[in-house]
Amino acid sequence: MTVMAQASSNRWQHYYTPATVEEAVEILQRYDGEARVVGGGTDLLVETRRGLHKPVSAMVDVTHIDGLGEIAVEDDYIVIGCGVTHSQIVRNPHIIEQGSCLAESCGVIGGPQVRNVGTLAGNVAHALPAGDGTIGLLALGGEIEVAGVDGARWMPLQESFKGPGKSFIDRYRQVLTRLRFRPTGPGEGSAHHRVMRPQGLCLPIISMGVRVALDADNVIGDARISMGPVGPVPHLAEPAMDVLIGKPATAGQYAKAAAVALQNVELRASKYRATREYREQMVRTFLPAILERAVERARQGLS
Amino acid sequence: MSALRMTLNGRPVEVEVHEARYLSEVLRGELGLKGTKIGCNEAECGICTVLVNGTPVSSCVFPAYKAQGANVETIEGLSADGGLHPLQQAFLDQGAVQCGICTPGMIMTAKALIDDKGAALTEDEIRTALKDTYCRCTGYGSIVRAILQAARGESRDDSGRASASSPVGQPLPNPNARAKIDGTARFTDDYEFPGMLYARTKRAGVPHARILAIDTAAARELPGVQAVLTHEDVPGHNRHGLVIDDWPVLCDDKVRYAGDAVAIVAADSEEIAAAAIDLVKVEYEDLPVVGDALRAAEPGAPLVHDGRSDGNLLKHIKVDKGDVEAGFADADVVIDRSYRTQSAEHLFLEPECSIGIPAGFDPGEFGGQVDDDAVRGETARHAKTTIYVGSQIPYQDRDQAAAALGVEPDAVRIVATLTGGGFGGKEDITGQIHVALLAEKTGRPVKMLYSRQESLLVHPKRHPTVIRTRVGARNDGTLTAVQATLYGDAGAYASLSEKVLTRATTHAAGPYEAPNVKIDCFAMYTNNVPSGAFRGFGVTQSCFAIESTMDILAAELDIDPVELRHRNALDIGRTTSTGQALRESAGLRECIDKVASDMRGDDFRWTWDEGDRRFAWGVAVAYKNTGLGGGAPDRATAEIEVWRGDETHAEVRISSAEMGQNLPGVLAACAAEELGVPVRNVRVLLGDTDVCPDGGPTTASRQSFVSGNAVRMAAQKAAADQAEHVLVRYDYEAPQTRPLGAGGDMHFAFSFGAQAALVEVDMTTGEVHVRKVIAAHDIGRALNPLTLRGQIEGGIVMALGYTLTEHYIQEDGKPWTNLMARYKMPSIEHAPEIVSHVVEHPVAAGPYGAKGAGELPSIPTSAAITNAICRATGVRVHSLPVDQDELLRACAAGVDTIELGWGDLEPIPQVALGGRT
Prior knowledge:
heterodimer; A: 303 residues; alpha+beta; Uridine Diphospho-n-acetylenolpyruvylglucosamine Reductase, domain 2; Uridine Diphospho-n-acetylenolpyruvylglucosamine Reductase, domain 3; Enolase-like, domain 1; 3 domains; 5-stranded antiparallel β-sheet; 4-stranded antiparallel β-sheet; 11 helices; 35% helix; 23% strand; B: 917 residues; Ubiquitin-like (UB roll); DNA polymerase, domain 1; Aldehyde Oxidoreductase, domain 3; 7-stranded mixed β-sheet; 5-stranded mixed β-sheet; 35 strands
């Protein structure tokens, strides 16, 4: 054997693959801030290789935890374990049917190799302003379960975002163990769309998800709209949602929602990605389009 | 350290490895499975793909311990029993293997897909699954055909072809392909010499600064560091360069671009070398930065190279024919437009790697095996300073390294390893001299592998240009005058700028006969990364300008753009801009006719809508010289050794580079044809400067012609001698050419081509997709149709990237494009359907009539695409690459031109015709 490369300074000493949440939390506690959670690692490890994170002594890989590598259909929720990859979500018939916008949003993340390894939990914990999976789950009204020394608790997804790339989940002490959402039932539908460019960094120009509930009279009973990047954190477009609720599901109403969504956010130009005008145009074009698609799905459930 | 257990290619393995290691490192390192290649370490390129529990993953960012207990499959497992997997056979059959660096990852990605989908696999599913597994050579067409063949269990019996008595013109697979499909092919980084050290380079990091002090003390003291060298340690000439020796081996007085080398380190491991580099402290005095060619030309601009009488002007290149002012006076219509092209990166998927071996190296001294019969490789003794490298110009590597070492050229030997893509980007020196210096200093083999990020920073790119083109014509479309003024950004060092921009200049009037031509080109030094050779060699840029202008002219005159081109096309009896009267082999009009008749078909429309998508066709033509030309002697020497027994066998030896273009196959076919033996009886040895005579640089689409002729003629002489053992050495010199400005034959052959692109523009987003390209190329004679198809499809897709996705962005000398994640080459999803017509107008002096084919297919594509975009949207693109944001907003605002390509921050600068602003 020739002289082989030793671990470089910005790497870890130990790589743990705990089989239980308790074990994972115990390791994190033992390392007291010197260990961090890793899921698929498709973002984290690329960034670590570039030296963008402070080196830690240990990585705690939470994708091998028993029972958390699966998608479970429970009474009120579809529950996704922290080891579930984007590829699993994209192929899951329950999510395709009852959480369409999540299947669509996870389906546009990275390429196949990234989707085969990257997890939705990792996407959410990374807290990018426009992580596609996160945008999809946010539209569905997703919740996340966070486990730490004091046990586990569920919280609404949107309460986890602190800033661009910053989450209230402490990745050195807590594990995002499960994610869940109420599946869309009869009269409900969801959809996602993302606009990209073929040059430069693979970051969305705009990523949007919607969930709607429709009654038999073609009136929108409930609506959720998620968007990014429109600010430091994934955005829930509440004024635009209010425009839709209680109103008929028509093209005119969708356009109004898009206009209101634009009035209430400060879209920005980002160098080498998009001008503000282009971003606005994409919202005007595709927010109505996905509302239409979600409503169409809701109608199919009604018929 | 702890135990990693997994099932690897069906067998249980247990290996002690550090827990911080990635799967790719463990496979290639501890487990010695070098078939898995590393392209970027960013999970971008996909060539490191292996299967974990049947699923493709990028092994470069997959922690090894994540695979604990998993079932891992690599390329080595596919043919473990000696037979080929159907995918491997199909890759051979379809010519889906070119340079081969992506092949293992490509095959593994495809294997998972076929295991999943079986015979029902569709082309769409292939495109989805292979989206992030990149190939820079093939253009993906052959890969799709191979995967479909394997999925459907089809087979192709080509065994007869290999034994055919006339192999020239047969679609034979590349003789190297067999090793490339099973993971045994060795690229430079796959060599591990006993006692080997690992080297890194201290880069300037600043674009322009005076060096005040270099402190290497702390680096030298780091345990495991064996040598730290600066300019003071270069024993010979501290400059290199292919045309002008202005590029420091290690910078002394100042640094001129961010990628400049200031110090080099050899250490016991890569990590120690990297740590040592951080300990080298360089004190700089920052100097003002020259950020682009036009700023470089301004009076009073800071000087990149001090003491030059021409300031930053590297070369003013001129073409003059007739009287352009009289020509414009004679014109009914004059079109005057400006264009800009961007810097582009070759993105060969194998980053640069060199290994230096000290003179007198004995592997036994370092505990290695010694094979007394081995001529090269890990078990061989090495008498001379030897450099293992996948380079395009082995002999010039040798001469430049010898000069830096202060020894005679003969004291240095270059052994060419397989090259994982070059495209012009591996002509200049990168690590070759550094490893030789470090090997001689330490007395040990030294490997220097560039990271992808370092590769992006350091090696020469395609020249960014600003081109103003003025064209005059009569109402019937006849050209009366063409004038153009070009500014080319040569970057910090000369590299091949003079040659490249000469080609841009001489081809700037397009493949047309114009009676009056005046072209001025200013090659300017700047503090950007040097610009050098890149497939198309300057013609890509000027073709975009003239072929855009020709479409504008056609519209202005209301003449069919195909007809306008046909009318003015070069042909036998017509004269080029440099005064070369064409006497033979000018098939441009046939190319135009073939493309036009295919495109027009039934129900032809130039443009139509389908919902929000608008479709349109665009056409462009091009020509490209074969060989060096311009009066430079263009030689190749080949050696052939023939043994006659029950069967006749031969070995061809010539130092020319194989980058996946199948040079060994072409040369073997030439030799076999002349000797009358099956091609499998001919072995081709390329690129060992101690054994193989000089085939000249692998550039300018010259190898088939020049080296092909050398081999053909050597083989003819050998065939005439019926002795049992014959050794023939043949010095071939291509027909003489004349310098630019002297009139007459500047080149001994030109290849011609026409392409039509069908684009789809999504009018809701401005996104552009190329759906189909119809191409016809006159390359004299197709020596190997399988190889030729690969060159054509690969060239077109590469040019599609140049047009739509690629821009190496520098901001005042600082590269924004510092990651592969920031530079997108076309993926399989971008690859259009390509219909290729081969037009054969043989050139008498060429081998069996052949002329160059390597570059031409990537030249007309850009203008064909932007001409189609203009027809679809009414918006003329003046700056590459096309920006969907700009395009959509122009459409919405009713503006008919866009001056900003993606990555451009300022409009195209105004250039005065004839020179200087």
